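call fold(seq) -> tokens
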Amino acid sequence: MRTPAGKECKYYFEDHFRGRHTQECRLLQRNPQGGRWKPAHCRTCPVPDVLRQNACPHMALEGRVHKTLFGLREQIKVYAICTDTLREVADPAVGCGACHLHRPGAQILK
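ret:
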């Protein structure tokens, strides 16, 4: 679904049918310590870009609202785990690197 910032994100949901006005981020809802989501968070959220750059089916994302140094700004921080290798993914946009070796026709670049 298209976010208020204009990007496609599978975790964003809105419902305006018959007078309802629901907007939510389901990625933050899944995390009990995710924080309170606001539509303004979609402007700087890295999740739509991560989903567009890396479509690995083994990557599990977790997000939370993170306050900056003086607490004046809030942004979404993303934590990713590869469910195939059970390792933390340092850069979710790239992935863990191990899952790509299992695909048929994959080559190791040196």
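Residues 12-96 form one domain.
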